[in-house]
Amino acid sequence: MASESAVVNRNMYKRIALLVLLFLANLAGAAEGEPLVFGVLNQQSPALTAERWNPILHYLGVATGLTFQLRMGRTVQETDAMMGRGEFDLAYTNHNFQREYDGAYKVIARWGGEPIRCVIAVPADSPLDSLQSLRGRRVAFPSREAFVAYAVPKTALSSAGVRVEEVFAGNQEGALAQLKARQVEAAAVNSRFLQQYAEREGLRYRELHVSEPFLELPVIAHSRLPRDKVEAIRRALLGMRHDERAGDLLLKLKFSGFEAADDRQYDNVRRTYRLVGE
Amino acid sequence: MKRISLQARVLLLAICVILAISLLDLASTAYVQVRDAEKRMTDQARSIGSALVPSLQNDLVVGDLATAQQTLDRVQGHAFFKRLDLLDAASAKVLLAGRLPEATLAENGVPDWFARLVDIRPSPLSIPIEAGGVRYGALLVEPSPAILERDLWHYLWLVALLSLITLAVVLPLFILTLRGGLRPLRELAASARKFGAGDYSRRAPDATVREIAQTARAFNRMADNIQTLFGQLRASNATNRRLAIIVEQSGEIILTLNNAGIITSWNAGASRILGYTTEESIDRNIAFLLPGTGSDENGLLASQFEDTQAGDRHEMRFRAKDGRTLDIALGLAPLLDEDGRRVGLICIGRDFTERKRAQDEIRRINAELEQRVWERTAELEAANQELEAFSFTVSHDLRAPLRALNGFSKLVEEDAGDTLSVQARHMLQRIHAASLKMERLIDELLKLARLGRQELQRADTNLSGIAEDIRADLAEAQPDRRVSWHIEPGLTARADRVLIRSVLDNLLRNAWKFTSNREEADISFTSSKQGNETVYCVRDNGVGFNPAYADKLFLPFQRLHKAEQFEGTGIGLATAHRIVKRHGGRIWAEGAVGQGTAFWFTLP
Prior knowledge:
The complex is a heterodimer. Chain A has helices spanning 2-33, 46-64, 76-84, 147-160, 172-180, 191-201, 227-239, 247-253, 267-277, and strands at 36-40, 68-71, 90-92, 105-111, 118-123, 138-141, 165-168, 186-190, 205-210, 218-222, 258-259. In chain A, strand 6 (138-141), helix 4 (147-160) and strand 7 (165-168) form a beta-alpha-beta unit. In chain A, 45% of the residues lie in helices and 18% in strands. By secondary structure, chain B is of the alpha+beta class. Chain B contains 14 helices and 16 strands. Chain B has helices at 6-62, 65-76, 102-105, 112-118, 145-196, 210-249, 268-274, 278-281, 302-305, 353-416, 422-451, 463-477, 497-514, 572-582; strands at 81-88, 94-97, 125-131, 134-143, 253-258, 263-266, 312-319, 325-336, 342-351, 458-462, 483-487, 492-496, 521-530, 533-540, 587-591, 597-602. In chain B, a hairpin with a 2-residue loop joins strand 13 (521-530) and strand 14. Chain B is rod-shaped.
């Protein structure tokens, strides 16, 4: 009887051990198959964001062998909150340089292209000729969450000691449309968008203020991601502009490809957020 | 089958056609509308679904299913879709389903039969929701037929209402137009009806519709023909009635037989003459009328009738019902049908029993008369012979004593004249003269007697020439007389030359004689036309005569003047009268005492 009991116990232990092994293997497989969550700042509607970023994430998956899932909040605040809760493994944003989020994510690359500046523009025939002349005037901004188009000009206006009547148009297109319609007396937008809009809509404007240059948004990685994965992703991002497989995509997105970047290159962003926060 | 007027038929047909066309049009329109609406609904559903996609893209990209549910519910609030579901991208299971509001779930007022009839079944659509090559799900949209059914139901009601209104407006106009259009036809029908009712003068009026006008003209031609035929038929009927009356009321027997000799018709005259009624005679063989045993003893057998021609006549003896045997004169004619085939015999008989009896009597009397005439003729011939013998006797036997008397008286005068006294000689001379006169009288009488027996020998005779000869003789005999003659030249006649010379000699000598006491005597022989007759006239201006005795002028020995005044025998005019009569002519005299005489005579 004793021997039989021993045999039963041995079998039971074997079974338990097998089950544990299976559970652990399952956990490992699950961890290996989970897609990496890629957050994107709300610069466009979620649909347009997905139209732009899903092909890029698909390319990254092909290039790295990883899987990615686009995720974002309905609003900038939601997206920032998701970022703050660490829901993103990777993100395309510069809101992480705000004091409350800074440190959890590291820059691994940036959107390619010339740096952009903040421009406070008035109609060409406007009598306004300086930031001081904007005092008390209606000035259009895309939104409170905009960095280049709000945080930066807000800092400039604050530095000049000018308070204006802020009009939030929802996005940069709206801000310039109100300027063209003379609903506002000035609009704060980024320099690239202003140039494109003026060419497209025939807007004749004059620059009252042009900020220092700011790099395009960075791709940041959460510190919990394994280094090899981050490195693989970074290589894929930087190699995209040279990869034939990404040729059609880049052409479609009218995008030159990601460029190398690090945290220090965004110190002016941190400084600006600090100034705004103060 | 109830008779319906043409107008009602056309109206009914038009309404049926209008209704059928309207229904067909409505059905086809409804069908097309349904099919178009289905396609439109599908397109619209695709459009709405496609419009929803960006919003749902946003919701699904950010994982906001609550907003997506709100979006679906909000769209479903329009009740356009029967289903509006969001399907899971991987499992295709319903992730979210748009919810219809309670109000829209209520009845749409469309009857079930109508929904089943139109059977609108728009196809569901599945619209994928993708962004950047990633499929987030699919939107399943299935349009609801309720709205379409309701719209279609309302549309059909509207169309039906409009159709009724249109029909109410168009129908009176159509009826008016139809009545106007059919008026010539109605008038034609009325004309035909009245014509059929006996108004044969009725004619159809002319019409502007070509076919009706042609029909009206054809009807009028037919009516003309019928009217003419009716007129002819009436005349024929009248003739037939008249003939029937004549036949029926005829006093003669008129009956018809078939080829077997069976009596097929029997008139009242036959009943009256033969005593048998029509009922007793019809369908019986004609033989029952034949005397004896009914055999055809008169030879009038049916077989013999076969050769009868129209106008054939027979005399037969029929036995009357009362047993009398009647002599019947039958006129026969074959009875022919329309094709000219002989089907019997027409017999028209007349009872000539009495006439035959009278004829027999007349024949008998004539025979007696002929016998008498023959006897009388014989007597006359005997008398004539006696008369001739008498004349011969007179001419010879009377002449002999006269010649003796004349001769002896002449001898006495010559032998003893000197011895005789003057008175005796005078008496002898008178005896001699009287004997000569008597001899002339005998000669004239003989001549007159011969005239009755002498045969006429007519020839073309020159009367004027004869008159001229006589005039010359007379003038030569008494050349000292002053007489004015006027003889019309060229007078001729077809007459016996010898006898007509005697007539003219008597008349001209008569004129010469009775104008002897005229210083200037006028004697003429002329002619004149009285109708077709030539009348010759011998006129003189002599002593004339008393017209009261004109009828005695031409009698023998009748003298209207004393012999002392004018000598004569009294035989001349009687002779002239007899000669003219023998020529078939007439002779008469006109005159007055002292005013001359005119003798007229004709020579046919």
